[in-house]
Amino acid sequence: MKTYAASVGLLALGTSVLSAVDTSVLNSDQASKPWSVSASLRGFYDDNINSAPKGSEQSSAGVQINPAINYGIVGEQTSLNFGYLLAANWYDNPYSTWSGPWELTQTIQAALSHTFNPRVNVSMQDSFVIGQEPDVLQVANTPMATSQTLNGNNKRNYAMLNLNLQATSLLGFQVGYGNVIYNYDDSGPGSNSALLDRMENNVHLDSRWTLQPQTIGILGYMYTHIDYTGDEIIGFAGPQGFIKSSNRNSSGNTAYAGLEHTFTPDFSGKINAGAQVNDFYNNPAADTKITPYVQGSLTYSYRATSSLQLGVSLMQSPIDAFDPQGGSYVLNAESLVVYTAWIHEILPRLYSNLNGSFQQSKYNGGSVDGDSGMYYRIGASLSYEFTKHMSASVGYNWDQSDTPAQLNQSYNRNRVYVGLTASY
After folding, report:
1. Full-prediction pTM beyond 0.70?
2. In this structure, is residue 14 part of a structural domain?
3. Predicted pLDDT of residue 140
4. Letter string b/e over residues 16-54, b meaning 16 or more CB atoms within 10 A of that residue's CB
5. What is the CATH number of the domain that holds 341?
6. Which of 34, 185, 281, 333 could lock onto 319 through a cystine, CB 3.0 to 4.6 A?
7. How far apart are CA 196 and CA 6, in angstroms?
């Protein structure tokens, strides 16, 4: 098993900006009609299809097909959108444990926003994924869910609800709830299901203070509960004997303060910083874990078709490592994630896309207590729009994981692709 870190996924950081019409749930092809369809066809080469350690890599060429459909409505008070995406990958040299050359991942998404009056609005979203593709199973911009293409019908559902209330011209509130469910298809002691099947629940309350027209101050609190649902043995830890999935359950309390500031109409930023306290209530030998908590980002849209985003997060997150030492075993990790996404129009119709992330996970417990694992990812691509509805792209992705030797989870991976996309 070569998975790395698992996503917390419950960062319900919203805003209390109220508007009568919200078009953010729609894509550009829905500007003149409620529906849109698209499809892409890519050829690719992957030199390590299962993120295996050095010496065990297996390479494969293949084809990826991505059809998608969206339907949305924008009203004076209510906006909604539904979407479906299929990612079908065919490998000419599939991994030996896979059921065949095809790997299929389906994504169903829904988003809804409603404005009750100029002071109160609500937004909801849900994303359900079933399949094998690790880049889709994870929740964006959080510690990664898995680095490995996993056989079987693995499931992830992410839901979020935010209610915004502008009490006065200077003071607003946001109440939010988030839920993530992971269910991996394998089973047995030490499996992905044993280590990572879980339900994460999160409730947060933010008070939002208008310090200046361009600046919002935030004081907030968040409660998080992680319930491991695998009901499997994950390993043996000395005096404690056999350890089950639920022994890593935790409840967390986070207090933070933050700022949101609009520097110019094209440049804005936000940051929340505080402390996170996690209690592993099913493990009497575990100490309460207190760590810093940070969520921040900067966004610069310097052209209509060009933008740059930088982000950082620091939080406690689930981990698939177990690796006991005496009665201690890995409970979770303190994960620092730094990411960037840059889209630039080089010439009319020619665009570059550069994205990258760095993750450092400091393990809590077991033989690797206090040690860190590193994960790096870089993606670069060029795309050319022949027409509004037809484009071609070429790209490269690089992944590298460096972990303590006893975990045997270090690997290097390179992927290249070229393809066509049509949309209407």
Report:
1. yes
2. no
3. 60
4. bebeeebeebbeebbeeeeebebebebebebebbbbbee
5. 2.40.160
6. 333
7. 7
